[in-house]
Every structure is written in structure tokens, then in C-alpha cells.
Write a structure and sequence with these properties.
single chain; mainly beta; two-stranded antiparallel sheet; 1 helix; flat
Length: 368
């Protein structure tokens, strides 16, 4: 609705802005009457104004609706059928055939052979031998000996002597002092002793160490190195050469002969019966189950959606031109909303209703 009103406003504004042709408002007479000799327009151009009028508009709108439609549907049902078929089976067949077989037999033969033997041979040879004999000799030598030597020396020695001295000091002595007090129970005066510490000056002996220096003779031992001579035994090895008889063992290669057993394989041909297993194809018959799909047709109700045009009406505001009050000697009725031509805005009732040549002419308006 807002779009319709906006379009109407744009059309009205374009119409108001367009120039008005003055020839449209000239009087045009009907049969035989002519106004061209007047040379003046019928009336002055009108000042247009816009009025809003309610207008009813009838239209259609689309509505969605549902309905059930019977539809033919094909479904498939599984059917199990017993179908005979043939298949091939491998059947084993045993036959006995004679075949030539070669086997190998082990034969032991005695074969002579020669081999080398190491024979030990002992011989006596004279050889020069050097031996070492141990000889003990007495050899003189000198050595150092530490000899102690005692001497008397005077040395200053400090000794400590204890000396007793009287020293006056104050000592706290516990002393019993009689005191009188009233017994709160009997009211009598009672005397009791109280221990009191009393300082008493006394003299005591104190022992003190006093150093005393004296010179005393002290024996001092010192060692003095003194050279001494002695004889010691020294062992030495002296080489002694001699000729001795030595047994020498040498190996001599000697050839020997012997016989050994040699195993050999001898081929032996023979004919034996052999079981041969052959497979023969045999045709068998059986029945198996085959599943097949059978179409089944049925009618079901299916919901379908469709649209329907439904008429409805609404009211909009439409702009129209309203004619103002035209200047005239006689009072006229107030202007009302009248239908306006598309070529000018002057209403038919007020435009060119009086002929300029005098009298009333039969005119259909200034716009035609």
C-alpha cells in the first residue's frame, strides 16, 4: 500500500511541474457557433490543488492448501523359490600301475692305500754347555754407626710453689632471730624464731701459685756418627763351560700300506606296483533357494500441496485534483472534488460555460 501511495505522489508532482498549454482552454463551439472571432480565452487558467480520496482495490492472494490424492505405488516383495541346478564334483579314483623304479644299494669294498707315518729316532750328540757356579767371597766395607754421647748442661728451670695468704671476706650466715606475734585464734602472744641471713666478716686462707726460677744440671744425650769397618760375604756366578752327551729325538717320515673300507652306491632297477589317485569330474543335481523380487501394486493416499487464489480487497488513499473557487459576479457553490481530465485541471462545470460572443453556447468543455 505504501508503494502505491508513493507512485501516486510522484505522478501528481510530475503533472504539476509540466507546462499547461493555453490552447487547451480555448472555447470550441458545437455545430455552427464559432468563438474564434472573440480572440480571447474562455477563462483564466485554474490554480490546481490535490485532494486524497479513498479507493477500494480488489486483488488476489495465494494460499497454500493440502489434499490427499490416491496414488498408485509399486512395492517389491521378496519371494524364495526352490530352483534345481547341477554342479560338478571331483571324485577320487585309485588305480594300480606298474612303474620302473631305480634304487641305490650301499656296497662296502676294501681298497688298499698308502700313508705316511712320523717315526721318532733318538741319537746321542755332544754339545758344549755353559753352566754358572755360585762362589762366595768375603768383601770388606765401611758403614756409619750412631754413637750416643752424654754431657751435663746447666739450664734455667721454672717451678711453681704454693703460698697461703690470709684474705678478709664477707660471708652470709643464717641466724635464728626470735619474734613475737599474736595468735589470731587464742589472742595470746607467741614467740617464734625466724631465719635471717646476716653478713659476717671473716678471714680465710687462700693458696696462690708463685713461680720460682732455679738453675739445675741436666744430662743431655747426643748421637755422633762414627765410621766402622767390616767384612761381608758376596755371592757371585762364575761361568763354567763343559761338553755333555745329549739325546736328540728326530722324526723320520715312513711310508706304510693298509686296507680301508669304502662305501659306494650301486643303482638297482626294479618294477613296483604304485597306487595312482586320479580325480574324475562327476555331475550332481541339487536344489537351492533363490530369492527374487516380485512387484506388488497398491493405492495409497499421498498428501499434496497446492496453491489457491483467494480474492480480497483493501482501501488506499489516491491523490486527485480539486478545482478552486472561480471569480464570478454571482456567488457560486464551494468547489467540490470533481473528476479531472488528463489534459487540464479546469473542471467542466466552470470552464467556458459562457460564450464570449454572447448567449450560452452548447459546449462540451474547453478541453475538447
Amino acid at each position: 500500500m505504501k508503494k502505491t501511495m508513493l507512485a501516486a505522489l510522484l505522478v501528481a508532482a510530475a503533472w504539476l511541474a509540466a507546462p499547461v498549454d493555453a490552447g487547451l482552454f480555448r472555447h470550441r463551439a458545437s455545430s455552427g457557433d464559432s468563438c474564434d472571432s472573440c480572440g480571447a480565452p474562455c477563462a483564466a487558467p485554474c490554480a490546481p490543488s490535490i485532494c486524497w480520496v479513498d479507493k477500494k482495490i480488489d486483488t488476489f492472494r495465494m494460499e497454500m492448501r493440502w489434499k490427499e490424492v490416491p496414488t498408485k505405488v509399486t512395492t517389491y516383495k521378496q519371494v524364495v523359490n526352490q530352483v534345481p541346478y547341477t554342479y560338478q564334483v571331483c571324485v577320487p579314483v585309485e588305480t594300480i600301475e606298474k612303474r620302473k623304479v631305480t634304487t641305490y644299494k650301499q656296497v662296502v669294498n676294501e681298497v688298499p692305500y698308502t700313508y705316511q707315518v712320523c717315526v721318532p729316532v733318538e741319537t746321542i750328540e755332544k754339545r758344549k754347555v755353559t753352566t754358572y757356579k755360585q762362589v762366595v767371597n768375603e768383601v770388606p766395607y765401611t758403614y756409619q754407626v750412631a754413637v750416643p754421647v752424654y754431657t751435663t748442661e746447666k739450664r734455667e728451670v721454672t717451678t711453681w710453689t704454693c703460698v697461703s695468704e690470709p684474705v678478709k671476706t664477707v660471708v652470709n650466715v643464717a641466724k635464728l632471730v626470735p619474734q613475737c606475734a599474736i595468735d589470731p585464734c587464742t589472742g595470746c602472744v607467741r614467740t617464734f624464731c625466724t631465719t635471717v641471713c646476716v653478713p659476717v666478716e671473716t678471714t680465710c686462707m687462700v693458696t696462690r701459685r708463685v713461680p720460682v726460677k732455679n738453675v739445675v744440671e741436666v744430662p743431655v744425650c747426643r748421637t755422633v756418627m762414627k765410621e766402622q769397618k767390616g767384612v761381608r760375604q758376596v755371592c757371585s756366578l762364575v761361568p763354567v763351560e763343559s761338553v755333555v752327551d745329549v739325546r736328540v729325538c728326530k722324526t723320520v717320515m715312513k711310508e706304510e700300506k693298509a686296507v680301508r673300507q669304502v662305501c659306494s652306491l650301486v643303482p638297482v632297477e626294479s618294477v613296483v606296483d604304485v597306487r595312482v589317485c586320479k580325480t574324475v569330474m562327476k555331475e550332481e543335481k541339487a536344489v537351492r533357494q533363490v530369492c527374487s523380487l516380485v512387484p506388488v501394486e497398491s493405492v495409497v493416499n499421498v498428501k499434496q500441496c497446492y496453491t489457491v487464489q483467494v480474492p480480497y480487497s483493501y482501501t488506499v488513499k489516491v491523490p486527485v485534483c480539486c478545482a478552486p473557487t472561480a471569480p464570478a459576479p454571482a456567488p457560486m457553490a464551494p468547489p467540490t472534488a470533481m473528476p479531472v481530465s488528463t489534459d487540464c485541471c479546469a473542471p467542466v462545470s466552470t470552464c467556458c460555460n459562457i460564450s464570449p460572443c454572447g448567449g450560452r453556447g452548447h459546449h462540451r468543455g474547453c478541453c475538447r
